[in-house]
Amino acid sequence: MSGYMLNDEGKLFVQTAREFAEKELKPRVAEFDRSGEFPVDLYKRAADLGLSTVELSESFGGPGLDYITIAAMYEEIGRIDSGFGVSMAASFLAYKPIVLGGTPEQNELYASAIMEGKFAAFALTEPNAGSDTSAVATTAVKQGSDYVLNGSKCFITNGGVSDLYTVFASTDPDKKLRGLSCFIVEKGAKGLSVGKEENKMGIRLSNTTDVVFNDVRIPKDNLVGREGGGFKLAMRTLDLARCAIAPFAVGIARRALEEATQYAKNRKQFGNPVSALQAIQFMLADMAIRTETARQMAIHALTLVQNGLPYGMEGAIAKCYSSDIAVQNALDAIQIMGGYGYSRDMPVEKLLRDAKIFQIFEGTNQIQRAVIASHVLR
Ligand SMILES: Cc1cc2nc3c(=O)[nH]c(=O)nc-3n(C[C@H](O)[C@H](O)[C@H](O)COP(=O)(O)OP(=O)(O)OC[C@H]3O[C@@H](n4cnc5c(N)ncnc54)[C@H](O)[C@@H]3O)c2cc1C
Predict the structure, then answer these.
(1) What integer pLDDT is reported at residue 1 of this predicted model?
(2) Mutation pick for ligand 1 pocket among 88, 126, 131 (CB with most ligand atoms within 8 Å)
(3) Has residue 334 got a pLDDT over 90?
(4) How confident is the model at residue 331 (pLDDT cuts 50, 70, 90)?
(5) Domain contains 125
(6) 35 exposure class (CB count in 10 Å sphere: 0-12, 13-18, 19+)
(7) Are residues 173 and 200 in the same domain?
(8) Are residues 239 and 270 in the same domain?
(9) Which of 148, 313, 275 is nearest to 216 (CA)?
(10) Are 209 and 191 in contact (CB under 8 A)?
(11) Domain CATH number, residue 82
(12) Where a domain ends, among 193, 228, 263?
């Protein structure tokens, strides 16, 4: 696998991901992209193959893989359908605050759900609180030995299919960010409901919904970490998650390059394949430069994570750069394929639709640039 230094066990995991993506996911992607339906049987199959537990440590029954192997696996899934990968990875996004600040019992709850192929959701964003987390209006009021949650979240990945929700709510609205706390809410809690499902332009194999809390009563043991510690948990989670989602964008960029290359070699104009034109060759070369650079940046950020070194800036660069170049590569693939690239009969217009979200979620690329600038100016 180009660009990744993997041991034999890692190579085997990546091969499993590649074969699943190529043989089982790929033939059905167009159908689910059209319908926007959640492909339950494919997710079940991925879980059976061990693909949905890749980020779990051995102590909780997972394979205990290193982040570079996980990145290589995510690139393979992203190459075929990044939305599918996003829904799988979103369970770990929800689980990370628990890993960072949860009790052993809370860790066990999430890990066993993920081991059983269930989904979890990370619920931070609200209608009036996107980039500005201090505007979170969902409240959690302590009543005896319970907390009572009220409010609504939007754009929640896996919102409609999860068994567990990691929810950020204010226990002290006057304190703004320092009043945010993190809670576990289980499916079936009275007053918890799934709202509108988003009809998205891309990553249509993932589920994205509103989640509504109407006097949802949860035991105080469902607080993750301490009261007021929610913002820090959310930011540390997103820092890490940015490094982990970059490989999906690399997968999109790589696929765009592969599709454009294949097409350019076969498409004849003026008596020769268009790949013989230097104008096309230079576009392909630039696509290759961008893909390899983004891959290496993701590997670098994840190597820092793996070794316990600071990775805030590198993670932001990996997320920002890989998503920007995924969009650019998708655009260039369409250009190289001319009118056929613009047709829904070809896979590259979908790559563009899928790539776009990576510039928006887990902190928009403007926010990433603000993060990077703050490191530069420090
Ligand atoms: C498909 C999808 C899945 C998602 N999944 C989840 C999920 O699982 N959990 C979750 O909690 N959220 C999720 N989100 C929400 C996502 O993280 C937010 O959409 C994102 O953080 C941006 O917030 P916003 O959409 O409210 O944009 P806004 O914050 O309103 O931003 C609007 C524009 O202003 C810019 N802007 C805002 N503030 C600044 C600033 N300080 N400096 C420079 N520019 C700025 C933004 O970059 C953007 O261009 C998801 C969103 C989508 C679309």
Answers:
(1) 53
(2) 131
(3) yes
(4) very high
(5) yes
(6) exposed
(7) yes
(8) yes
(9) 148
(10) no
(11) 1.10.540.10
(12) 228
Residues 124 and 223 in one domain: yes
Question: 360: CA distance to ligand 1 center in Å?
Answer: 6
Q: Give me the pLDDT at residue 2, please.
A: 66
Whether 3 is in a domain gets the answer no
d(CA 348, CA 286): 17
Are residues 330 and 254 part of one domain?
yes
Are residues 251 and 369 both part of a single domain?
A: yes
Residue 246 pLDDT greater than 60, yes or no: yes
pTM of the model: 0.97
How many whole angstroms from 11 Cα to the centroid of ligand 1? 35
Pocket-testing residue among 183, 198, 238, 360, ligand 1, by greatest number of atoms within 8 A of Cβ: 360
Q: Is residue 93 in some structural domain?
A: yes
Backbone angles phi, psi at 226, to 5 degrees: -110, 160
- Residue 1 inside a domain? The answer is no
3-class state of residue 357 by DSSP: helix
What is the spatial distance between Cα 211 and Cα 243, in angstroms, rounded to a whole number?
A: 26
SS3 284: helix
CA of 6 to the centre of ligand 1 (A): 34
Same domain, 204 and 280: no
For 221, the token pair is 């043991």
Same domain, 124 and 222: yes
| E-strand stretches of 70-144 | 119-123, 139-143
In a shared domain, residues 286 and 164: no
| Number of neighbouring beta carbons within 10 Å of residue 374 | 12
What is the per-residue pLDDT for 115?
95
CATH of the domain at 340: 1.20.140.10
**At a CB cut-off of 8 Å and minimum separation 6, what does 166 contact?**
94, 95, 97, 98, 120, 121, 122, 123, 182, 183, 184, 224
* Tally of domains within the chain: 3
Question: pLDDT, tens digit, for every residue of 346-356?
Answer: 999 999 999 99
- Local confidence band at 3 (pLDDT 50, 70, 90 cut-offs): confident
| pLDDT attached to residue 31 | 96
Range of the domain at 55: 8-115
As annotated, the active-site residues are: 362
The ligand 1 site (C-beta within 6 Å) comprises: 90, 122-125, 130-131, 155-157, 200, 208, 357, 360-364, 366-367, 370
Of 115, 135, 159, which closes a domain?
115
